[in-house]
Amino acid sequence: MAKDPVPELLSRATEALEAEFEALPRFETESMPGARELSGVLEETARRLVDNYPYFHPLYAGQMLKPPHPVARAAYALAMKINPNNHALDGGRASSAMEMEAVREIAAMFGWKEFLGHLTSSGTLANLEALWMAGQQKPGKRIVGSEQAHYTHQRISGVLKLAYTSVAADRCGRMDLNALEEELRKGDVGAVVATLGTTAIGAVDPLDGILKLKERYGFRVHVDAAYGGYFRLIADELQETTGRAFEAVGEADSIVIDPHKHGLQPYGCGCVLFRDPAEGRFYKHDSPATYFTSSDLHLGQISLECSRAGAGAVALWATQRLLPLVPNGEFARGLAKCRAAALELDRRLRAEARFAPLAAGKPELDIVVWTLALRAADSGMKSEQAQSVFDACAARGLHLALVQLPAKWFRTGDRAEDARTMTCLRSVLMKPEHEAWMDEIWKRLSAACGEVLTA
Ligand SMILES: *Cc1c(COP(=O)(O)O)cnc(C)c1O
């Protein structure tokens, strides 16, 4: 592996930070252990950490996992010196300001200048805030999402005591607008969750169509773009229907995006945005312990969570400084490479009779799903084969993922089969390096399939 530049950069930045506090009288930290002891424990920690898939490597092409950008890692560690808490300005003045700036840059990506928004500890928490707001605005009404929406929407609705209904997805994995309208006609839908980039296959719900239905039925639109949100930056390079959905995001009432997915951040970084800043009034609380020593806005006044990692905001701010969220910038080019890798893998799968990729068409973002196309095999056999290919790839150092999907998406041509779900292979190509590594990925995948099919 190439030498990690972070320790040296961090050590210089740490010195610069320490110099700022030099005027303080010296003191001895009582909890400082001996260097020997410390390095012993750290070495043991490193050995423990080896028991992981190599998420940072291009041959890890499985789940939505990758390491944070080096600048995020360094900035996070630097902020740990201070350990700010972005609940209140008293706990983190600088990091609260950095959070507001970073969140404003994310909102600007969707065309929002005036809005309400903040970071959360995850996409789930961000969605919880958005659905909580929907419940505040439309009490007693239902939440509707597609059957491919993230599983947590149903659970969150349960926590919030809001009724939740899921509607069918089409063969592309997108929300079926006819199925949605059927629910809307019942007159009690308060909010619709549009997923822009489903977790399973990266399908993008037809947001423009959902917004048209909103004109007629008047519900709230929440966009869950936890995984797909950053693809807004390359909307004009996506399939026409996908691009149209991304271009409409700014018309939603709320948006969730996860900087810890495609935003190069360490875990613990989600983000929720509301189009109407006046919705902040619902967050009002009167904690006696919240030490509001200034009358400026404290992020804890517009967030359901109390303590939040200021370091997360610092890391995000630094990352966006280096890689601004602009079309055609380096960050956007990275996303385009991920998508190019996905299209290339899909193209190779389609060129060989032994593979069956999604029948409806190409991947919309950077997730590819497929199964093996054996004539006589039923969904049970295909599921077993997918598992065997997954294992045979892993034995060759190529790490894929598995996912349960409706068998009919892969054109079985058999009614009974169509009703089933089956285990399919899935690859999230979310590292720009995947593009250059496609030959190597393909070589290992081909060999693994050859072994499974001749066994
Ligand atoms: C990952 C994901 C979530 C959940 O976000 P976490 O950060 O894992 O809590 C919600 N919705 C979608 C579409 C996701 O991909």
Could you report the average pLDDT, rounded to the nearest whole number? 94
Strand order of the largest sheet: 1-7-6-5-4-2-3
Strand percentage: 5-15%
The helix content, as a percent range, equals 40-55%
Structural class: alpha/beta
Name of the CATH class of the largest domain: Alpha Beta
By CATH, the superfamily of the largest domain comes out as Type I PLP-dependent aspartate aminotransferase-like (Major domain)
Residue stretches low in confidence (pLDDT < 50, at least 5 long) are none
Q: Can you tell me the CATH architecture of the largest domain? A: 3-Layer(aba) Sandwich
User: Distance N terminus to C terminus?
Assistant: 35 Å
- Strand runs, count: 11
Query: What is the N-to-C order of secondary-structure elements (H for helix, E for strand)?
Result: HHHHEHEHEHEHEHEEHHEEHEHEHH
For this structure, the CATH topology of the largest domain is Aspartate Aminotransferase, domain 2
Q: What radius of gyration results from the CA coordinates?
A: 24 Å
Largest sheet: 7 strands, mixed
Instruction: Provide a count of the helices.
Output: 15
Quickly count the domains.
2
**Ligand list:** pyridoxal-5'-phosphate
Shape label: globular
